[in-house]
Design brief:
The protein is an alpha+beta fold. The protein has two domains: 9-182 and 293-374, Zn peptidases (Aminopeptidase), CATH 3.40.630; 183-290, 2-Layer Sandwich (Alpha-Beta Plaits), CATH 3.30.70. 32% of the residues lie in helices and 25% in strands. The protein has helices at 9-20, 29-45, 88-91, 107-126, 151-159, 208-220, 260-271, 297-312, 328-332, 361-374, and strands at 49-53, 62-66, 74-79, 96-98, 101-103, 135-140, 163-165, 177-181, 183-192, 196-197, 230-238, 244-245, 248-257, 276-277, 280-290, 319-322, 338-339, 346-347, 355-357. It has a six-stranded mixed beta sheet, with helices on both faces. Strands 11-13-9-15-14 form a five-stranded antiparallel beta sheet, with helices on one face. α4 (107-126) packs across α10 and α8 (297-312) packs across α10 (361-374). The chain starts with 8 loop residues before the first helix and ends with a helix.
């Protein structure tokens, strides 16, 4: 059991509600920073050393809080941004508790887990708990769009760390943590053609939509489920009126791959679709964003420690590989032992039914807290 008293699930849920009802879409830096302001004030108030990195490119700030201690730190990182726009709470996903489920936008992915990290560090400092290693906590603003501004601070914090813990949602019905992830990436596609009247001058036109449709089918064909490679194309756009040959079109591509070799293969194949011929120009921007998160002996050792702690908390903790990426991809590929999926049980990430199983808040947070106290 952790030395630190992290409280009951009821108590954690009551404070987590305030985080969920403070909507933080990635695209609203002010909203994200408002939640970070609250976190900063509380962490500074219990003695954390605070570093605040100003946001850029329309994203919020990155908050870094450090506890005292000697030696290589233990890093814990969570994001406070969500995929949900302002008004979701009022219009379609109100805060509500129904039986063993608590609902609300972003509660599962990943405000519950990020709150775990914040709450555990705050209580460790408030209660004066001694830890084997100093702790570096990062609360970040832009994970849901690939961490364009927070990747560098995460990598910098991890570079000299003894280990990294990521409290992304626990996975599946059994609430598994994550010891490996696929690499993720994407492209933005722009297609230029030539406009013409769809009747009288059809032969003079070059349809950007038709050219894009061929590209879509080619990208879809790269999916290889046996090898763990998937592609998806959405959204798509193009054209203006049915009687006008469309001079422009575009789409976004998402891809997932289990290894760096497979990811490079997909990137090469997609980039080869950028052509300029017969009045059509296809331009692609993008590539691999999050490198694959490999399962390693050091990562498995972290898992075994977490599994033993979980057993003392009264629950079984399995492990899994996951197709979605996280900030753990960045640190794992650096060779830093990384354990992911240490957040709360639940389901519905990025979906209207998003929820956590709120009775699991205390035992899951206690597991993370004991890891923070004892790893090293």
């Amino acid at each position: 059991m952790p030395q630190t008293d992290i409280g009951t699930s009821d108590r954690i849920l009551a404070e987590l509600r305030g985080w969920v009802e403070h909507e933080t879409p990635t695209t609203d830096a002010g909203a994200v920073n408002g939640l970070l302001d609250r976190c900063q004030a509380e962490l500074a108030g219990v003695g954390a050393a605070i570093e605040r990195l100003a946001g850029r490119d329309g994203y919020g700030d990155t908050l870094i809080a450090r506890t005292p201690g000697e030696g290589a730190p233990l890093v814990v990182a969570g994001h406070v941004d969500t995929v949900w726009d302002h008004g979701t709470l009022a219009k379609s996903m109100p805060w509500r508790v129904e039986g063993d489920r608590a609902h609300g936008p972003g509660i599962y992915d990943m405000k519950a887990g990020s709150f775990f990290a914040f709450h555990a560090v705050r209580e460790i400092l408030r209660q004066g708990t001694r830890t084997k290693r100093p702790i570096t906590l990062l609360l970040t603003p832009d994970e849901e769009v690939g961490s364009p501004t927070s990747r560098a601070p995460i990598e910098a914090a991890a570079r000299d760390a003894c280990a990294v813990l990521i409290p992304e949602p626990a996975g599946g019905p059994q609430g598994a943590c994550v010891t490996g992830r696929k690499g993720t990436g994407g492209f933005r596609v722009s297609v230029e053609g030539r406009s013409a009247h769809a009747g009288g001058n059809w032969s003079e036109g070059r349809s950007a939509v038709v050219a894009m449709s061929r590209l879509v089918l080619a990208v879809h064909a790269l999916t290889d489920l046996d090898r763990g490679i998937t592609t998806n194309i959405a959204p798509v756009w193009g054209g203006t009126r049915p009687n006008v040959i469309p001079p422009e079109a575009g789409c976004r591509i998402d891809f997932r791959a289990p290894s760096l070799e497979a990811a490079e293969e997909v990137v090469t194949a997609i980039r080869a679709l950028g052509i300029e011929e017969d009045g059509i120009r296809i331009t692609l921007e993008g590539g691999l964003n999050r490198p694959p998160f490999p399962e390693t002996p050091a990562g498995l050792a972290l898992f075994e420690t977490a599994r033993e702690i979980a057993a003392r908390q009264g629950y079984r903790l399995p492990k899994q590989h996951r197709g979605g990426g996280s900030d753990g991809n960045f640190t794992a590929v650096m060779g830093i032992p990384t354990l992911d999926g240490l957040g709360c049980t639940g389901a519905g990430a990025h979906a209207p039914e998003e929820h956590i199983r709120w009775a699991d808040l205390a035992p899951r947070c206690a597991t993370l807290c004991e890891l923070l106290e004892t790893l090293g």
